[in-house]
Amino acid sequence: MRLRDVDPSIVEEIRYATPHNFTGDPVPGYDEPMCVVTQPLAEALRAAQQRFTSQGYTLKVYDCYRPQRADGHFVAWAEDVDDQRMKDEFYPGLDKSRLFADGYIAERSGHSRGSSVDLTLVRLPVSPQRPYVPGEPLTSCTAPAGQRFPDNSIDMGTGYDCFDSRSHTDDPRVTGEAAANRNLLRDVLTSVGLKNYAYEWWHFNLPREPFPDRYFDFPVNSAAFR
Question: Is the Cα torsion angle 136, 138, 139, 145 positive or negative in sign?
Fold first, then answer.
């Protein structure tokens, strides 16, 4: 189901429908920038949103349901070691040839079952998000918040989809406000029944998902929900 049908107040910035992702191109299967999730995940996010808004924040989702063809595209992209367009932002300290072997790219993902979500927090009222311009100079996702791409989220210590150990939720190098922000995100989402993936501060799963053995491949577009 569309998340907006359950809680339209949650901000949606579906990165893989745009060129601002580690491949540098819109990803196959993302026909529209729309968050699709299973009903229990949508309800959990609505419950979390109510708690966050009472504290002056809103959730912002980066990725929700992901068609299986997108993961196939990621694998093919990872095997093309000559395509280094987005390295300076998303994997500045890692050899691209290691992305698949080191587990940053996988043939299958829980996102394709509709019960995983990538998200962050934005302070209310929501500030405008500057669009990414293809070809613009890139800055490392591990740089200080004021130097990274100006995402309108609060500081989480790294950018989204940062292929670096600093993205581990409890990485000891992330301290102060950024660590507190990660803990806030995790604590509230855990309280509504979601579980964080320890290697990505932004990634949360619904443990008791309705389709544990399915990997869907329908494209993300409104036609499927009319």
Answer: positive
> Helical H runs in the chain?
39-54, 68-79, 87-90, 176-191
Residue 100, pLDDT score = 84
pTM of the complete model beyond 0.85? yes
Task: List, for residues 46-103, the tens digit of each pLDDT value.
Answer: 999 999 999 999 999 999 999 999 999 999 999 999 999 999 999 999 999 999 888 8
Q: What is the CATH number of the domain that holds 172?
A: 3.30.1380.10
Query: Is 32 an active-site residue?
Result: no
Q: How far is CA 111 from CA 36, 54, 61, 66, 92, in A?
A: 10, 28, 13, 5, 25
**Which domain, by its residues, includes 130?**
3-225
pLDDT tens-digit profile of 41-53? 999 999 999 999 9
Structural domain tally of the chain? Answer: 1
Please enumerate in sequence order all residues whose Cβ is within 8 A of that of 110, keeping only pairs 6 or more positions apart, or say none.
Answer: 116, 205, 209
Distance in angstroms (rounded) separating the CA atoms of residues 104 and 161: 9
Instruction: Choose, from 79, 136, 200, 209, the residue flagged as catalytic.
Output: 200
140-187: pLDDT as tens digits:
999 999 999 999 999 999 999 999 999 999 999 999 999 999 999 999
